Give the backbone structure.
Amino acid sequence: MTVRVGVIGTGMIGQDHIRRLTDVVTGAAVTAVTDLDAARAAEVAARVGATVLPTGAELIHSPEVDAVLVTSWGPTHAEHVLDAIAAGKPVFCEKPLATTPEDCLRVVEAEQAHGRRLVQVGFMRRFDAGYRQMKEVLDSGSLGAPLIVHCAHRNPTVPDAYYSAMAAQDTAVHEIDVLRWLLDDEIVSAQVITPRATSKRFAHLKDPQIMLFETAGGVRIDLEVFVNCQYGYDIQCEAVGEEGVVRLPDPASVSVRTAGRHGTAVPQDWKARFAAAFDTEFREWTGAVATGAEPTGPSAWDGYAATVITDAAVRSLQTDGAVVTVGMKTRPAFYGGTA
Ligand SMILES: NC(=O)c1ccc[n+]([C@@H]2O[C@H](COP(=O)([O-])OP(=O)(O)OC[C@H]3O[C@@H](n4cnc5c(N)ncnc54)[C@H](O)[C@@H]3O)[C@@H](O)[C@H]2O)c1
């Protein structure tokens, strides 16, 4: 069976996922698209032979659409996801699930009322081969209990519109999701401190930031977010356990020796670094949809948790580094697991 996907939002990542669903993933086709920018939607639709529909609601209820992909702006996500749940259709929502915890909870409640999982949130790191290998090691117990995790999330530069709270909301949110999953543990507090700012920053930006998280199990996480590091897009993660250490591998890349030096290239953006993870994410999602199975990727609850934890980090940033307790609701049994 070919999964017929309708896409709401044909901007940067919408187009990338449409290409992925068309050229990379087998068993899926993009049959309908919509965008507030009708000309953009028409241009993208023509490339893949999809129908342009005027609104998200019409796309969701179209008989040509089996499953919905939401890649519009964050504040619009909850409305489209709630509509897809009401229509009983599987929905993949790019992060964030919603921009407020209250809207995330509306989705969580609607999905539970529906009675089975329909929602997957676009945290792609869980599909990265390196993170999956790290999780296998941690789950095996061979390192004993995890105690500390050291992370870094570095971008070469960010656009002028990037502001300090986005370090948590847009950047660290990926670590927040992947660490909850890696450790199978919940984050209970957040603290954000700001070292001397780089002179390469924009005047309004606190960069870098150091984020400190604590989990319910007592693991301490330190995360450097440095979004104007100049040299490349660099993701580091090292978990220290009672009996050893496991590190996220750098992407495979040839080693070049020349002019008295040897080295490997550092990716320049997240698209290149996580291209294979995005492909796996969509293969697994469409595979589940095709068989009528519930999605196994990040859930609506994970979307809620990420929003609550990033809110706590932003509050810490805004209160000069106070330790902020994460005020998360109790995880419903519907979502299984612990984190
Ligand atoms: N997983 C990741 O690493 C990752 C990476 C990039 C972007 N994202 C997320 O994807 C989403 C989109 O980001 P982007 O960079 O592609 O933005 P973008 O601005 O390039 O594209 C968004 C598009 O959605 C359209 N749009 C907005 N609201 C709409 C609505 N209600 N109905 C129809 N069309 C609508 C806009 O006209 C625009 O064309 C954001 O939530 C962003 O956080 C996730």
